[in-house]
Design brief:
This protein is of the alpha+beta class and about 375 residues long. It is built from nine helices and 17 strands. The strands form three sheets. The chain has a seven-stranded antiparallel beta sheet, with no helix packed on it. A seven-stranded antiparallel beta sheet has the order 11-17-16-15-14-13-12. The model has no long low-confidence stretch (mean pLDDT about 95).
């Protein structure tokens, strides 16, 4: 069981370079605490806002296991709700997206207006004191960054703009106008590892020269060239292009460098060098030993199809190499023979920042916040 004392002890060890305990990657109590103390308290990327652009448009989403529903009301207002019928907890909307005038549960036909209010509950007239007004759908917060749609399980969440901080400005400075990007495709995937393994692998390029030769041929991954920075709500990596790159796709164009962001706790934003491009998507805990994720790939309107195909092939290769790495790490951690490792703080400073961030959120969850 996590306690205030055990988390404080872990945090103190991480502060001087120790990794998180390997048990935190396999323990069900830690997994449950992360779901409640981290993922129920943060913003989630769910897709593109144009999927709910018209009145009556409905889109379901998953917020790390919490069913969610995004709705464009007949009044034109975008709203979000927990996708849970207030009768007995059935998922209300099961299709991925659609257009509706009302929301009706497939179980007992409780029916809601698109503003979340309960319109009808069969046989409710036979129930003494039944008040439809108290059984509206539970709201959640929704917000946008350019074409990107985000949801937060808490309706009183810190505004998305405040959470993202300077990250949108850094993306713009990298040569990306997000409002001109168009969705090309979505890639869902699952990994046999803890979600933190996947995040940590993303947060360092110490492994790139060894495990990603094609990536290291495009980007200068040396310790004096590849820059790592940490902000309160995200981590940022900047990879300069090698002048003599023999890369798998053309990189000399409008976007001069690779830039990679991790919005805490687990939203990836990738910009590869070359033509205007971005991929964005979450990494979610599906259990102590399984991670579910997806990436939406977007490109500028004028980017040639052959460039897209070459860049996606490059990105897919890196992803396959990363799968081997994170699943190997999780297998090693799960064996029980070794309790923890050590961060190389010059090259893995973002991993330490992430570990401290996780520890602080778990400490707050169990009741006593520690120093940030």
């Amino acid at each position: 069981m996590l306690t205030t004392e055990s988390i404080a002890a872990v945090r103190a060890e991480v502060a001087v370079g120790a990794t998180l305990p390997y048990s935190w990657y396999t323990d069900r109590d830690v997994f449950a605490a992360e779901r409640a103390g981290i993922f129920a308290q943060t913003w989630h990327y769910v897709g593109l806002v144009d999927r709910v652009a018209s009145p009556g448009a409905v889109m379901r989403a998953d917020l790390a296991g919490m069913p969610a529903l995004l709705v464009r009301g007949l009044d034109g207002v975008l709203r979000g709700f927990h996708n849970v019928c207030r009768h007995r907890g059935s998922v209300l909307v099961r299709e991925e997206c659609g257009v509706r005038n009302t929301l009706q549960c497939h179980y007992h036909a409780w029916t809601y207006d698109l503003d979340g209010s309960l319109r009808a509950a069969p046989r409710s007239d036979r129930e003494n004191g039944f008040d439809r007004g108290v059984f509206g759908l539970a709201p959640l917060a929704v917000d946008t960054w350019g074409p990107f749609l985000f949801a937060h399980p808490r309706p009183d969440a810190l505004p998305l703009h405040d959470w993202l901080g300077e990250m949108p400005a850094l993306v713009a400075a990298a040569g990306i106008d997000v409002d001109t990007l168009r969705l090309h495709h979505r890639v869902p995937y699952s990994l046999h590892c803890n979600w933190k393994n996947a995040v940590e692998n993303f947060l360092e390029c110490y492994h790139c020269a060894v495990a990603h030769p094609a990536f290291a041929d495009v980007m200068d991954t040396g310790p004096d060239a590849y820059r790592l920075q940490v902000r309160p709500s995200f981590a940022w990596q900047h990879g300069p292009v090698r002048l003599q790159s023999r890369g798998l796709y053309p990189v000399a164009d409008e976007v001069p460098a690779g830039q990679y962001f991790m919005i805490w706790p687990s939203i990836k934003v990738n910009i590869n060098p070359g033509r205007p491009n971005m991929s964005i998507g979450p990494v979610y805990p599906a259990g102590p030993h399984r991670t579910d994720a997806f990436l939406d790939y977007l490109f500028g309107e004028d980017v040639p199809p052959e460039w897209i195909d070459a860049m996606v092939a490059f990105d897919d290769q890196v992803g396959l190499e990363d799968r081997v790495l994170v699943e190997s790490v999780h297998h090693g951690m799960s064996g029980g023979g070794v309790e923890r490792g050590r961060y190389m703080l010059n090259s893995e400073l973002q991993l330490q920042a992430f570990a401290l961030w996780v520890a602080d959120r778990l400490a707050a969850h169990v009741g006593v916040a520690v120093d940030a």
